[in-house]
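Entry 12.
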Amino acid sequence: MSIAAKICGLSSEAAVTAAVEGGAAYLGFVLYAPSPRAVSPARAATLCAAVPSGVQRVGLFVDAGDEAIRAVLDLAPIDILQFHGQESPDRVADVKVRFHRPVMKAIAVAAAQDVLAAARYEEDADMLLFDAKPPRRLDALPGGNGLAFDWRLIAGHRWRRPWMLSGGLTAALLPEAVRISGAGAVDVSSGVERRPGDKDPDKIREFLVVARGL
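Predicted 3D structure (tokens):
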């Protein structure tokens, strides 16, 4: 069975087309202004309009309030909310009820104890995403930093929710990352870019070809 892939941080029609035609299962749109991949709610709506049924449209938020989430959902047909900040399990549960959307919760990993944090979200989140913990810099983003963590930290673990591997993945690294971690789904952003925020359609296609072959 091929690996399900999420292409995150999409901001152009060409990148969306490459992801859809390449067989991505999830398309991610960043609704977090400090990110170089951020799109406005109106831009997200335009890009989502080109996504066929069966492909999940994911809106990425970082510690967003209800008004910010509602402003996006009023315009863009987002299927899944991705929380990539410090959102608590209670916040995840509340948003699911309030907006009637499943929630994917990112877990920042640098050491073994970080992996244990996932258990806090198993009751309320619909999916977990394991990403590298951001570097200790004031300008560091919550994700999309092109950093990988030690995939052995999650190898052999079993969670009650579906999960996805993220952090520093590229087409070249993908086979080893899947082999070590045991991931059945993966997320890529910076690994298919020319520069931060500028997705390369050829790199997207290459990544998806590798994912299909695993």
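Annotation: The mean pLDDT is 94. The chain is about 30% helix and 20% strand.
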